């Protein structure tokens, strides 16, 4: 994915990773861009972010970055644009991007394993903790299909993240879901425990390949559609 982003950029001097979280994407961008500015509205996230000599971290909102006009070659937003005031953010992107600069936004879907394992995970996702997902989550479920990107679109490749996991790996991951944490706070019990036996039975002892299909939307926001 980062190779695609670099190939789409006409210049590779400055990248802005917006809503950087732990800085994982920001550090990956340093393989392709000279300088990376990484912002997040959360000071706690910035304080805990991965450190790199060519990543400059700042506390700032997506809509008011504090960056100079036309100072950025690419803006990246991973799994976060559904939290933004999108119209205001797109105005900010137009302001800070140079004339051929790229805006790239991505999200990843619920993971897929195959067979009955997916049905068990879906029971947790939609049934047990379904009401604890924030309403903005629906934008990810729609693969950002309703998101109208400004400018001229850039075709993006089909990409999926994949890992080899045991059942224990998957159970640990499910417990990191924000909806599971909200359920536990509200009910005082672990929602994953309700599907644990079923998942262990369906998964077996072997490692399985877990896929997260990614949806990437990219455009040159200061280039008019032809």
Describe the structure.
The structure is a single chain. The protein is of the alpha/beta class and 226 residues long. It has one domain (2-220): Vaccinia Virus protein VP39 (Rossmann fold). It has nine helices and eight strands. It has helices at 2-8, 24-29, 43-48, 86-96, 116-128, 137-141, 167-174, 178-187, 193-203; strands spanning 14-18, 35-40, 55-59, 72-78, 97-108, 152-154, 159-165, 208-220. Strands 1, 2, 3, 4, 5, 6, 7 and 8 form an eight-stranded mixed β-sheet that branches. The model has no long low-confidence stretch (mean pLDDT 95).
Task: Let me know the average pLDDT.
Answer: 95
Helix tally?
9
Strand content is 25-35%
- Tell me the CATH superfamily: Vaccinia Virus protein VP39
Run of helices and strands: HEHEHEEHEHHEEHHHE
Based on secondary structure, the structural category is alpha/beta
**Domain tally:** 1
Q: Architecture in CATH?
A: 3-Layer(aba) Sandwich
CA-based shape: elongated
The count of strands amounts to 8
Largest sheet: 8 strands, mixed
Instruction: Just give the CATH class.
Output: Alpha Beta
Unreliable spans are none
Please give the alpha-carbon distance between the first and last residues.
26 Å
- Helix percent reads 25-40%
| Gyration radius over CA | 19 Å
């Amino acid at each position: 994915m980062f190779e695609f982003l670099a190939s789409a950029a006409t210049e590779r001097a400055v990248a802005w990773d917006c809503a950087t979280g732990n800085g994982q994407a920001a550090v990956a961008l340093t393989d392709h861009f000279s300088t990376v500015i990484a912002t997040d509205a959360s000071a706690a996230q910035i304080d805990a972010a991965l450190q790199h000599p060519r990543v400059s971290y700042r506390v700032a909102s997506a809509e008011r970055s504090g960056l100079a006009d036309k100072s950025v070659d690419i803006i990246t937003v991973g799994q976060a644009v559904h939290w933004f005031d999108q119209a205001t953010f797109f105005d900010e992107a137009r302001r800070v991007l140079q004339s051929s600069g790229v805006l790239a936004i991505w999200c990843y879907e619920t993971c897929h394993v195959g067979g009955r394992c997916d049905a068990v995970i879906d029971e947790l996702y939609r049934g047990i903790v379904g009401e604890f997902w924030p309403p903005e989550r629906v934008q990810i479920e729609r693969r950002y299909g309703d998101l109208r990107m400004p400018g001229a679109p850039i075709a993006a490749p089909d990409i999926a993240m994949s890992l080899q996991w045991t059942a224990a790996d998957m159970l640990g991951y499910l417990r990191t879901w924000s909806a599971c944490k909200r359920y536990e706070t509200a009910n005082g019990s672990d929602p994953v425990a309700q599907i644990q036996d079923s998942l262990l039975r369906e998964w077996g002892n072997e490692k399985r390949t877990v896929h997260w299909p990614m949806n990437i939307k990219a455009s040159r926001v200061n280039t008019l559609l032809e």
